[in-house]
Amino acid sequence: MKIVVCAKFVPDATADRRFRSEDNTVDRAGVDGLLSELDEYAVETALTVKEAGEGEVTILTVGPEQAADAIKKGLQMGADAGVHVNDEGIHGSDAVATSLILAKALGKLEADLVVFGMASTDGSMGVVPAMVSERLGLPAVTLGSSVTVEGTTVRIRRDGDTASDTVEGTLPLVLSVSDQSGEPRYPSFKGIMAAKKKPVETWSLADLEISPDQVGAASAFTEVTEVTARPPRSAGTIVTDEDGSGAAQLVEFLSTNKFL
User: Fold this and answer.
1) For residue 146, what is the enclosing H or E element?
2) In this predicted model, what pLDDT tens digit does every residue of 213-244 receive, in sequence order?
3) pTM recorded for the entire structure
4) What one-character-per-residue DSSP string does 75-129 give?
5) Percent of the chain as helix, strand, coil, to the nearest 5
6) Does residue 232 belong to any structural domain of this protein?
7) Within a domain: residue 238?
8) Count of domains in the chain?
9) Among 92, 98, 200, 216, which has the highest number of CB atoms less than 10 A from its own CB?
10) For residue 118, what are the domain limits?
């Protein structure tokens, strides 16, 4: 079975995330980044499926040079190979264009099972798995809290607020998993060393037969027109209670700010 995990390189949430001043797109090259935390669950699911039967796990990512770190983390966890789609023309692509790039790459990889996380930690849209399944003409089994694969049948449990559903699909298909699907493993020292010898291919838009005018900022359906930095936090109000009026001042503050 050919299993492909679509993994995204995202800015570290603890870093100084920002937009590029020249085009108001997310700065992915000038800040620290990492494999999206939610995509680690996808990698774990793929490795668990592989270990329960037979197969090969490939990490597929789209992004600038630094996005190779997302592949590196997946290989260290236990994936077998990586593919990095890297092309200057991709910069500024929206979810629609990203789904096109992924679908073309997945078609070239001839994947049997495509695994996504439930969303990216930077965009939080969660629509790309459905878009990719539509482009590939494959069924989508999404937001799985648990996943089992028996032969060509993929079965998930999807947990909602009031009920849990069991959903089945037949391979090949697109699968997305939630952050309840199983704790991602940590790379072992052996895995870290082995990852250095695993194959990673780099593909361009031309390799996928995609025209530059189909992707990038110019083809995006949305545009960030203005960015304003969040103002620094102001000092809080200090209430003293030298004369016993502290409680009244506190109530007045809460009432004025409509907290009461």
Assistant:
1) strand 146-150
2) 999 988 999 888 888 888 888 877 787 788 88
3) 0.85
4) HHHT--EEEEE--GGGTT--HHHHHHHHHHHHHHHT-SEEEEESS-TTT----HH
5) 30, 25, 45
6) no
7) no
8) 1
9) 98
10) 2-219
